Structures are given as structure tokens and as C-alpha cells.
Amino acid sequence: MSEFFKIDPRLEKLAEQAEALCAEPFERVEAIRAYNEEKVLRAFLDNRVSEIHLNGSTGYGYGDLGRETLDAVYAEAFGAEDALVRHSFVSGTHALSVALFGVLRMGDTIVSVTGKPYDTLEEVVGLRGKGNGSLRDFGVDYRELGLTPAGEIDFGAVPDAVRGAKVVYLQRSRGYSLRPSIGVETIGRLVETVRRVNPEAVIMVDNCYGEFVEKREPTQTGADLVIGSLIKNPGGGIAQTGGYIAGRRDLVEQCSYRLTCVGMGKEVGCTLNQNRPMYMGFFWAPGVVANAVKTSIFAACLFERLGFPVYPRYEETRTDIIAALKLGDAERLVAFCQGIQSGSPVDAFVSPEPWDMPGYDSKVIMAAGAFTGGASIELSADAPLKEPYAVWLQGGLTYQTGKTGVLLAAQSMAEKGLLNL
Ligand SMILES: *Cc1c(COP(=O)(O)O)cnc(C)c1O
Predict the structure, then answer these.
(1) Which residues contact 244 (CB under 8 A, 6 or more apart)?
(2) pLDDT tens digits for 50-72?
(3) pLDDT at site 224
(4) pLDDT in tens, 180-237
(5) What residues does ligand 1 touch, defined as CB less than 6 Å away?
(6) Rounded to whole angstroms, how far apart are CA atoms 340 and 13?
């Protein structure tokens, strides 16, 4: 019984049962946390991280040792040759866009083997709009290979699909779909399949939400580039903004030429006061990711016991921090998100409402009461009010507060008579 939050006793009982069922999956998460915390510490030690690295530079940022060493720390932890970790990436989409424009040239083809890319990338590759400077405008052809009916990579069709491609692109996390996320081992299998027919292809992975959920990153099973956001997993809830690109040295350099300018690349870019939060965030990240994964597992288990389809199920192996809960109608989605918001450390007193978000074809409701604007490594939930009427839940800086947030979401539904208890 919580002394601080009013939760229906029947819900508390279900939560207790759910938590007991989660014991074994939680143990697996803790083992991965331990491994990754050591891995990151090793990378700090090997690169002789020192107090001077925590101070930032101004102006051009020439010779910023903090910036250079952080790149090396990321590269080592991800098993990559090099990395580009910058607060000046405004988001994950920006980092992905820089990687695509950095590597692709006129006449090249990019092939996505996980169906449509994340919504915000549709404009980048040129699926929407014309004359706006998309990859398509610059003469880069985009093709995609759809997923199988089970939502998996269509391995049988990969060889034909990737022939002649300059970039083979895949998205590890499910995004706003119910398809399964793609584990690091499967990415390794894809790399082998692609290399057999197209050894020159650059295999690029949208790694958003995936970092530190497994012991290895896709760069450790052969991917050439991985890309992600620092207000998600690798920022550990501490980085204030930013993104990263890690992988083959020559490709990272090409990306750096796109981020700054040709010739200058990684040699410039002041870090202002961002080195310390970026280092500290990376240090905390494996633990924070473990808390988020446990929150996600608990939510899946509880909501399954409440009778809702959940993706993935609580005992399934994870490769990202997302739980998709199919609540079935708009009323339940709204009540759920309002409950999540009511348990946020920041702005708990506001009540989110569905709104017409630019770029979406239905109303969307979002719950986010975060220390960092829009940070989804902090407990947050998003739900487009349309079929399949599912909410995508992610984050949780600590497990207990993540669990409390999930319970408050269920409580909010119960209070409106939207749960069968
Ligand atoms: C978050 C995310 C992105 C990038 O989104 P931003 O909001 O621009 O950081 C891209 N792909 C996936 C799968 C994501 O989850």
C-alpha cells in the first residue's frame, strides 16, 4: 500500500501479482545493466576521462579535448571505430538526416528493409513534399521492402531488394507500430544476408530507443553506422539535448562534413557547457535504461492482466524500451495518458488533451512531465486517437517512479469506469 498515492486496492493486488511474475525478466534486465555499466566504465578508463574533459569550449571549439574524448568513449562502448556525439544535433531525426545526407550521393539508392521509416523521416527521404531539399530532390532514390505479415524482416526478399543499394537502412525499434522490434542478433543476420549480395552497401541502423537494452549494439554485429538521440537512452536522462552517429571511421567523417562543413568535420564545434551532462548521462545510461525497461515490462504485465493486448509481452526478450498497449478506444487512451501525467515529477498538475499535431492525420494525446523538454527516456506516453487505439509508453528514470506512473494510469482509467477490476 502506498502512503503517498491513492490506488484502488484491487489494482494494488494485481500490481503485486504482476511484479512477482516479472521477477525473472527483471533478473535478465539487471544482468544486462551490470554488463553495460562495466562496459561504459571501461570505456571511460581506457580513454583517460579527466576533469578537464568536463569543461566546455566556446567559439570554434578547436582542440576541444572533452568533445574528442567523448567521441572515443562512445566509439569504444559501441564497438565502433569512431563516433560523432554532439549537443548540436537538435534531435534524433536530425542525426539520422545528417547520416543519410552525409553518406548518399546523387544517383545512389537507399533501401529500407523495415518498411516505412519513422514518420519524421518521410520528408527527409522525400516521401512527402517536393522541392524542399529532401534526398529525392538531390537525386537519391528511395525504395522499401515491406515487413512480413508477422512484422518481421522479409529475409527471403532481402537479396533482390538490396542489390545495387548504396545504403541499406533499418529501424531497430517498432516506432508507432505494433510490429516487433528488431534485436541485435537479427540485425547481425541481416548484415550477413546483405553482404552476400552487396558487400559494398552501407548498413545504417536507426538505433533510437535501443541503446543498452541488450549487451551489444548493432555495430557489434556488423552494422556500419548506428544513430540515436541523447534525449533518449544514451543521454541517461541527464544530457540536455543532442544526438550521436557511431560506426566506420570513413563514414563518420562523411557525416561530420555534413554536420559542419567539408574539410572541417569533427575538428570544430564548441561544446559550451554540455560536456559534463553528456559524459554523466552516458555513465548513468545503462542503469537508467534498465529502469525504463523494467517499467515497460511491468506495464505490459499489469495491462495484460487487466485484459489488454500488449506488445511485447512481459516475458519476451527486449531490444528497446517501448511498451505498446492496445487499450481499444479513445476514452481509455485519454484516461491513461492523463494518469501518466499525474505521476510526473514536473507538470503533474496539468491535464493533457488530444490535439491536432502537425504531421499526424488524427488527434494525438501525449503525456510528458519531464526535466528535459520532450525527453522520452523519462516516463512518457503517446497515443494517436485512431486504430489500433494503442498507447506507446516509454521511459522511467527510476523503476519505482515508473511503476507509480503506470499504476496512476490504470487508476485514472478505473476512476472513469474504464477498467474491469
Ligand atoms: C525518436 C525516434 C526517432 C527520432 O525522433 P526525434 O524525435 O527526432 O528524436 C527516429 N526513429 C525512432 C524509431 C525513434 O524512436
Answers:
(1) 74, 83, 84, 85, 86, 89, 95, 227, 228, 230, 234
(2) 999 999 999 999 999 999 999 99
(3) 98
(4) 999 999 999 999 999 999 999 999 999 999 999 999 999 999 999 999 999 999 999 9
(5) 91-93, 118, 120, 171, 173, 175, 206, 208-209, 229
(6) 19
Concatenated DSSP letters of 355-373: B--TT-SS-EEEEE--SST
3-state secondary structure of 245: strand
CA distance 360 to 160: 33
Q: How far is CA 395 from CA 86, 92, 293, in A?
A: 22, 16, 8
The atom of ligand 1 lying closest to the CA of 175 is 13
pLDDT of residue 315: 97
DSSP three-state, residue 228: strand
All three cell numbers of 310: 500488449
In a mutational test of the pocket of ligand 1, which residue from 169, 177, 208, 240 has the highest number of ligand atoms less than 8 Å from its CB? 208
C-alpha cell at 242: 543532442
Count of C-beta atoms within a 10 Å radius of residue 409: 30
**What span, in angstroms and rounded, lies between the C-alpha atoms of 52 and 40?**
19
Per-residue cell: 38: 562495466
Residue 324's pLDDT band (boundaries 50, 70, 90)?
Answer: very high
Q: What are the E-state strand segments in 176-257?
A: 202-206, 225-229, 243-247
CA of 6 to the centre of ligand 1 (A): 34
Hey, what's the cell of 286?
Answer: 545503462
Residue with cell 570554434: 60
Query: Helix (H) and strand (E) counts for the chain?
Result: 12, 12
Region 126-138: what's the mean pLDDT?
A: 93
> What is the C-alpha separation between 135 and 95, in angstroms, rounded?
15
For the chain, the residue count is: 421
- Report whether 187 contacts 170 (CB < 8 A): yes
Yes or no: say if 211 and 377 are a contact pair by the CB < 8 Å rule.
no
pTM to 2 decimal places: 0.98
The C-alpha atoms of residue 173 and residue 209 are separated, in whole angstroms, by 7
Q: What pLDDT, on the 0 to 100 scale, is given for residue 175? A: 87
Sheet of 380-384: strand order equals 310-311, 323-326, 390-394, 380-384, 364-368
Please give the distance, rounded to the nearest whole angstrom, from the Cα atom of residue 52 to the centre of ligand 1. Answer: 32
Distance of CA 210 to CAs 286, 363, 371, Å?
A: 11, 27, 21
